[in-house]
């Protein structure tokens, strides 16, 4: 493989996963904070809030996972490797 | 590339292979054999469990029948929450099959020591860590919601593409492509990421340290099965309900 392509791929993979973690991190922090606030205000609704929180966290997590998939494609199945 | 991740000589349990498969040649097709083997195992497990549960059904459920009734109630509740009281009944089998298959395959990849079975090439793992499996499941969901929409509204289903305003037509068409894409990537990425993290940790510290991450992996796998089933039900509900169709509702 061309060393330039290799270096660019590794760098791009690192950037992909790192940048993809920023937004969901902020979003998950917001969601978790609001959920804690909700539980503090209404402790009897804890079960329902927790279920919804876990589901929404999984949705936000998937955004990072998209970045991870791109990183994995660049590392293990690079389309520019030929 | 990245040969440090493939270390079969240093520690036999810690080898990690991405992109190595057991290839079977069927006609002109080259298929990934290890995915088929584990999928058949999962399907067999589910079929045997269902047969055992229903073979001698009692009025007061015990043992495996109790377990399967609990699973059925869980799945029914899930689809009722998404699809609504009126339309959920015919979609319970589809959504339940998706949920149970993904759930059992994710957990089988994490819980069953497949490493003990040697393959000539590749390794046995959860079938959902292959992108082909998840794309197939996601395309099934696409077919299902198109079918649901057509069955409910006929050709009027296409009205939803231009319903609020025709300006959004490209985005509405794009949505049909991004739905299966995001569904399949989410499942595939999560399961593969779990296995990679566990494998890398096992490579570094073989004993005890990976256990919490494995538990986290089990948790994530279960949540991802739930997310896939929930999203499938939500897409079907969207196709049935439509955007601007309230005035036609009976």
UniProtKB/TrEMBL annotation, chain A:
Subcellular location: Cellular thylakoid membrane; Membrane
Any one cellular-component term (Gene Ontology): proton-transporting ATP synthase complex
Domain of life: Bacteria
UniProt-recorded Gene Ontology molecular function terms: lipid binding; proton-transporting ATP synthase activity, rotational mechanism
Alphabetic keyword roster: ATP synthesis, CF(0), Hydrogen ion transport, Ion transport, Lipid-binding, Membrane, Thylakoid, Transmembrane, Transmembrane helix, Transport
Domain called V-ATPase proteolipid subunit C-like: residue spans: 11-74
Coiled coil location: none
Marked site: Reversibly protonated during proton transport: 61
Claim: tRNA processing is one of the keywords in the record: no
Transmembrane parts of this sequence: 53-77
Keyword Nucleus appears in the UniProt entry: no
InterPro entries, per database record: ATP_synth_csu_bac/chlpt, ATP_synth_F0_csu, ATP_synth_F0_csu_DDCD_BS, ATP_synth_F0_csu_sf, ATPase_proteolipid_c-like_dom, F/V-ATP_Csub_sf
Membrane topology qualifier: Multi-pass membrane protein
Function: F(1)F(0) ATP synthase produces ATP from ADP in the presence of a proton or sodium gradient. F-type ATPases consist of two structural domains, F(1) containing the extramembraneous catalytic core and F(0) containing the membrane proton channel, linked together by a central stalk and a peripheral stalk. During catalysis, ATP synthesis in the catalytic domain of F(1) is coupled via a rotary mechanism of the central stalk subunits to proton translocation.
PANTHER family to which the protein is assigned, alphabetical: ATP SYNTHASE LIPID-BINDING PROTEIN, MITOCHONDRIAL, ATPASE PROTEIN 9
Family: Belongs to the ATPase C chain family.
Protein name: ATP synthase subunit c
From TrEMBL, chain B:
CDD domains documented for this protein: ATP-synt_Fo_a_6
Gene3D superfamilies hit by this protein: ATP synthase, F0 complex, subunit A (1.20.120.220)
UniProt keyword terms in alphabetical order: ATP synthesis, CF(0), Hydrogen ion transport, Ion transport, Membrane, Thylakoid, Transmembrane, Transmembrane helix, Transport
Topology term for the membrane: Multi-pass membrane protein
Subcellular compartments: Cell membrane; Cellular thylakoid membrane; Membrane
Keyword Transport part of the UniProt annotation: yes
InterPro entries: ATP_syn_F0_a_bact/chloroplast (IPR045082), ATP_synth_F0_asu (IPR000568), ATP_synth_F0_asu_AS (IPR023011), F0_ATP_A_sf (IPR035908)
Gene Ontology cellular component annotations, sorted alphabetically: plasma membrane-derived thylakoid membrane; proton-transporting ATP synthase complex
Membrane-spanning segments: 31-53, 91-111, 131-150, 187-209, 215-236
GO molecular function, one term: proton-transporting ATP synthase activity, rotational mechanism
Any Pfam family: ATP-synt_A
Thylakoid among keywords: yes
PANTHER family for this protein: ATP SYNTHASE SUBUNIT A, CHLOROPLASTIC
Protein family membership: Belongs to the ATPase A chain family.
Functional description taken from the UniProt entry: Key component of the proton channel; it plays a direct role in the translocation of protons across the membrane.
Protein's UniProt name: ATP synthase subunit a
Taxonomic source organism: Phormidesmis priestleyi ULC007
